[in-house]
């Protein structure tokens, strides 16, 4: 056998372990994914040539193995603990007071961590090599999921360093990333396979797979938060130091762990994590407070299997059960029919929810949701509440499958469904008053023509009274008509007239967006405005010209061309211009100078005004590269509200950061320098 091959195999394994660590533990990859794949493929090829050199901890051994017929049971070497829960500040205060009294101290230092919503597992390392992985089970006995655990790249097959205990149980949570979950469900849906209700179920389903080759394809992540048995070696004297030690051995820990003082420090942490919750790429359902000092932990001891030195402070539940009273059908701006669940009011995710989306007919069929069912409603962050599933065992007798109507509930026109769409649409177009209303609401919205003071109710009245049929009619409204409407005093009518008048002075991008062309959002509207410079050229553009624009694909191009082909739309545009709507055309420089060429940006957190996509597209138009992760090569990080770990990393690397205001000024300066 070639000595060279053997050396190369060892070198490749070391390199791959190193890059895995940079990626999963330090969150700071050094090489692109494609290069990582090349290393892995080279190693696979060499091991195929020399199968006798394959070791248990080789990174190629993560692809899964033969399916099992069942999982065997495993006794944890030390029981896995459970945590008691607190739902209110008072309960946290009680917990802290009891601990202080028992310890006889004034203030306690706590290690605080996000409470990951996944599946708890225990990993056993012997001589630094991963020997087995087990689910929590009842805390004493779990299931042997070693084959599956070995496919999770974030879990090291071999520990780093030289000071780890020779026998070590590591405890932590396997979670599915939110982005990975969305992708997985999309691909499951396409294949006609089972769709998961949430990342936690998907993580559990993936880890409890008898076929580890399937687990290997799932986007699972692992974060460690405790140790079990420690033999022939030691870990550390505080929870915070234990986490740092685990990290130094190559085990990922959450970037949000901290040390705080006293109960106030805990409650402040709770608030700060709650604010960050949506921006994190994994689901959490609260935070955990742990007395940091291990001696103090020992002094406090346990009540049954829950420690007296730790407590989980949970967020308001994001899922609740309630009854589905009925299903209403809403007709949107583009005629899309959306089934909306009318619910027995239920408190979920911090608010009372009475309506939730059912998405479309396919989703209703897939979940088999019927009026009268007990359903699970989910409200996560700022997302529209949705019905996740129905509980079949609670279904009353004589329920019927639900079918969306075949004619529009508003205008009676035929409802059609295009082959490749999940959505059913009313064919009434602007004959349908629901579509008229939605088109007008969109036209006057803040990011479109920005007509202040013309609320939804008023728009509905204007359409119902036949005063406004299409958006151009807004510019013919007079005081008399407006003041004659319900709840309209003369002063507010005058304000509306003034706002409509003011909106005539607009920009090309706003105008294009306001037209409500399907597939043309704010960003595309801006791109179109900047590419064509005037409306006449855009209206005359064929599909070939349109697809030449960055970010405009055939579907978008088709939609734009169809819109302007329609005589009705051309007439409305002519009328708008006749009534005085105007903008300044944009001078197009064919050879656009790219002032930000060779500069790399990262955009993180919520940008309240412009949104992340818009910021990215503005940067890209100026020639910048927008990357998803911060590294030494990043030139600027644009930091919105609730930034995640990227901002902290940028700070540690000394990279220039721009908040939203500074970013806007920066953009303006660069744009005018073109
Ligand atoms: C979770 N689920 O994130 C613990 N946990 O500690 C954290 N769970 C735990 N700690 C001792 N961060 C028992 C359970």
How do you describe this structure in short?
The protein has 674 residues and is α+β, with helices and mostly antiparallel strands. It has 24 helices and 24 strands. The structure holds 5-amino-3-(furan-2-yl)-1H-1,2,4-triazole-1-carboxamide (9MJ).
Task: Give the topology.
Layout (H helix, E strand, L loop, with lengths): L2 H23 L7 H17 L23 E3 L8 E3 L2 H15 L5 E8 L2 E8 L2 E7 L5 E3 L2 H4 L17 E10 L1 H14 L7 H9 L4 H5 L3 E12 L7 H10 L9 E4 H15 L7 E8 L2 H7 L1 E2 L2 E2 L2 E5 L4 E13 L5 E12 L2 E7 L3 H7 L6 E5 L7 E5 L24 E3 L6 E3 L6 H12 L11 H9 L14 H5 L6 H14 L4 H7 L7 H11 L2 H6 L2 H5 L6 H12 L1 H12 L21 E5 L7 H10 L3 E3 L8 E4 L5 H9 L2 E4 H13 L2
Parallel strand pairs: 2-13, 21-22, 21-23, 23-24
Antiparallel strand pairs: 1-6, 3-9, 3-10, 4-5, 4-7, 7-8, 10-13, 11-12, 14-15, 14-17, 15-16, 17-18, 19-20
Helix pairs in contact: 1-2, 12-13, 16-17
Q: Mind explaining what this structure looks like?
A:
- With 674 residues, this protein is of the alpha+beta class.
- The protein has 5 domains: 3-61, Helix Hairpins (Orthogonal Bundle), CATH 1.10.287.610; 73-314, DNA ligase/mRNA capping enzyme (D-amino Acid Aminotransferase, Chain A, domain 1), CATH 3.30.470; 319-394, Beta Barrel (OB fold (Dihydrolipoamide Acetyltransferase, E2P)); 427-583, 5' to 3' exonuclease, C-terminal subdomain (DNA polymerase, domain 1, Orthogonal Bundle); 600-673, BRCT domain (Rossmann fold), CATH 3.40.50.
- It has 24 helices and 24 strands.
- The strands form 7 sheets. Strands 2-13-10-3-9 form a 5-stranded mixed sheet. A 5-stranded antiparallel sheet has the order 16-15-14-17-18.
- Helix 1 (3-25) runs antiparallel to helix 2.
- The termini are far apart.
- 5-amino-3-(furan-2-yl)-1H-1,2,4-triazole-1-carboxamide (9MJ) binds at residues 81, 83, 113, 115-116, 173, 225-226, 288, 310.
């Amino acid at each position: 056998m070639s000595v060279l091959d053997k050396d190369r195999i060892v070198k490749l394994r070391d390199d791959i372990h190193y890059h895995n660590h940079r990626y999963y533990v330090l969150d700071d990859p050094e090489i692109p994914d494609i290069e990582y794949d090349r290393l892995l493929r080279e190693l696979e090829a060499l091991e195929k040539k020399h199968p006798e050199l394959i070791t248990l901890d080789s990174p190629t051994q993560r692809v899964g193995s033969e399916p099992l017929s069942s999982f065997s049971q495993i006794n944890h070497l030390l029981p896995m603990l459970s945590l008691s829960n607190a739902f209110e500040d008072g309960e946290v205060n009680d917990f802290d007071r009891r601990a202080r009294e028992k310890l006889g101290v004034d203030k306690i230092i706590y290690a605080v961590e996000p409470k990951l919503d996944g599946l708890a597992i225990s990993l056993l390392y012997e001589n630094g090599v991963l020997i087995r992985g087990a689910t929590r089970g009842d805390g004493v006995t779990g299931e042997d999921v070693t084959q599956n655990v070995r496919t999770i790249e974030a879990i090291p097959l071999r520990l780093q360093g030289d000071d780890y205990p020779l026998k070590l149980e590591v405890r932590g949570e396997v979670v599915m990333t939110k982005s990975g979950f969305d992708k997985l469900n999309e691909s499951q849906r396409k294949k006609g396979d089972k769709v998961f209700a949430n990342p936690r179920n998907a993580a559990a389903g993936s880890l409890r797979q008898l076929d580890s080759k399937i687990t290997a394809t799932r986007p699972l992540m692992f974060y460690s938060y405790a140790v079990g048995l420690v033999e022939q070696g030691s870990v550390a004297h505080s929870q915070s130091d234990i986490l740092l030690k685990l990290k130094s051995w190559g085990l990922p820990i959450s970037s949000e762990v901290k040390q705080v003082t006293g109960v106030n420090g805990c409650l402040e942490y709770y608030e700060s994590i709650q604010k960050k919750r949506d921006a994190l790429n994994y689901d959490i359902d609260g935070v955990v407070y742990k007395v940091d000092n291990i001696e103090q932990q020992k002094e406090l001891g346990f009540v049954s299997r829950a420690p007296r030195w730790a407590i989980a402070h949970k967020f308001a539940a994001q899922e609740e059960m309630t009854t589905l009273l009925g299903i209403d059908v809403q007709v949107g701006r583009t005629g899309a029919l959306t089934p909306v669940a009318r619910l027995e009011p239920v408190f979920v995710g911090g608010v009372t929810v009475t309506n939730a989306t059912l998405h479309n007919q396919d989703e209703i069929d897939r979940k088999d949701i019927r009026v009268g069912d007990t359903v699970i409603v989910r409200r996560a962050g700022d997302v529209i509440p949705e019905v996740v599933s129905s509980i079949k065992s609670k279904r009353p007798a004589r329920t019927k499958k639900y079918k969306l109507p075949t004619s529009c509930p508003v205008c009676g026109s035929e409802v059609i469904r295009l082959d490749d769409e999940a959505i059913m649409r009313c064919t009434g177009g602007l004959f349908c008053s629901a579509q008229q209303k939605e088109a007008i609401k969109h036209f006057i919205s803040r990011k479109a023509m920005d007509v202040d003071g013309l609320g939804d109710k008023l728009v509905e009245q204007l359409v119902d009274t036949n005063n406004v049929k299409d958006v151009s009619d807004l510019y013919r409204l007079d005081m008399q008509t407006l003041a004659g409407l319900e709840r309209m005093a003369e002063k507010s009518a005058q304000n509306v007239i003034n706002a409509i008048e003011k909106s005539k002075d607009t920009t090309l991008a706003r105008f294009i967006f306001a037209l409500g062309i399907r597939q043309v959002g704010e960003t595309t509207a801006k791109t179109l405005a900047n590419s064509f410079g005037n409306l006449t050229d855009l209206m005359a553009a064929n599909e070939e010209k349109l697809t030449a624009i960055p970010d405009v694909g055939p579907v978008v191009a088709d939609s734009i061309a169809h819109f302007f082909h329609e005589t009705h739309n051309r007439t409305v545009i002519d009328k708008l211009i006749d009534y005085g709507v105007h903008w300044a055309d944009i001078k197009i420089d064919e050879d656009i100078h790219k002032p930000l060429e060779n500069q790399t940006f990262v955009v993180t957190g919520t940008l309240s005004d412009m949104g992340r996509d818009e910021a990215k597209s503005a940067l890209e138009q100026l020639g910048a590269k927008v990357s998803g992760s911060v590294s030494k090569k990043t030139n600027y990080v644009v930091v919105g509200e609730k930034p995640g770990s990227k901002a902290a990393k940028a700070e540690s690397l000394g990279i220039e950061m721009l908040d939203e205001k500074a970013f806007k000024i920066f953009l303006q300066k660069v744009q005018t320098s073109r």
